[in-house]
Amino acid sequence: MRVESYMSQAPVTLRHDTDYWQAFEIMQEKDLHHIPVVDGDGAVVGILTRRDLKIASMAYREAEVDVSEVMHSPVITTSPAEDLAAAARQMIEHRFGGLPVLGDDGKLVGILTETDLLRALIDRLGQD
Q1: What ranges do the domains of the chain cover?
Q2: Element (H, E) at 85
Q3: How far apart are the first and last CA of the chain?
């Protein structure tokens, strides 16, 4: 089983200079827990989680703060061809709920989340 079989394709992204309140609204509106953060060239520079935004709201309150100030960086990524179990181990080891997936050209092609892993588990359990 490979990452490409279960990753969520074409994930929502945020630019590194997006205001964290705007990021919070996007997460709420789209019911997301993890959003890859990209720079002006589209390169993944971090990942933002709902937890990051909760912490930011306590620290910065109403201040204008870019997501680059509150995201996780550097970000650990995987590839579509990676073994799904290996990617899951990375997520457990680093306590990540989402792992950006980069293609051979280094561009974001998807994100692997805990929900994606649960879909894989259901598929696997359904084979027995």
Answers
A1: 3-126
A2: helix 84-94
A3: 16
- Taking the C-alpha atoms of residue 112 and residue 116, their distance in angstroms, rounded to an integer, is 6
pLDDT, tens digit (0-9, with 9 covering 90-100), for 30-72: 999 999 999 988 899 999 998 888 888 777 777 778 888 888 8
Instruction: Give 57's contacts (C-beta < 8 A, 6+ positions apart).
Output: 20, 24
Dihedral angle computed from the Cα positions of residues 107, 110, 112 and 116, in that order, rounded to the nearest 10 degrees: -170
- Residue carrying structure tokens 């996780």: 72
For 3-126, CATH number? 3.10.580.10
Q: What is the β-pairing status of strands 44-49 and 98-102?
A: unpaired
Question: CA 72 to CA 48: how far, in whole Å?
Answer: 6
Q: Record the tokens describing residue 60, joined without a space.
A: 């910065």
Q: Supply the pLDDT for residue 80.
A: 97
pTM (two decimals): 0.88
